[in-house]
Amino acid sequence: MSAVTPGELRARNLRTLAALAALFLAPLVLAFFTYYGTGWRPSAHVNHGRLITPARPLPQVALERIDLGEGAPPGEYDVLIEWKQARKQAKEDVKHGTGHPSQKSADRLNGRYADPKQPRFHAVVKAETNVLPAFELTD
Length: 139
Fold this sequence. Notes:
This protein is mainly α. Among the domains are: about 5-40; about 75-125, no CATH class. The chain has 2 helices and 2 strands, in the order H-E-H-E. It has helices at about 5-35, 85-95; strands at about 75-80, 120-125. It has a two-stranded antiparallel ribbon with strand order 1-2. The radius of gyration is 31 Å and the shape is elongated.
């Protein structure tokens, strides 16, 4: 067995490094060239979709309200928000194994806005006509 000199070892290591760099960089260079260097590109970056005609109706949304007669009495309120999925969808989730029978209508917001101990939104109702601000769900 012949002894390998440090110069030969360094050259072999550099060749290996160059081969690995080429292996990982070649697809990137090819993609960059194909996208910017040729005419093979979406024309003017325009989406070519079609509108659905007639428009499909959105599903019914049930808003639950406690009957308080003429509305909520004046005062300060914590606002809790839940987005329940439709019972039919919840049953389908259970049927396909992605849901649990005890969660027949899970909160799509995962309880982020429904914690009564840490309410994120507040509303003040006065003894007059009230217009509440929009509640922005940001995260």
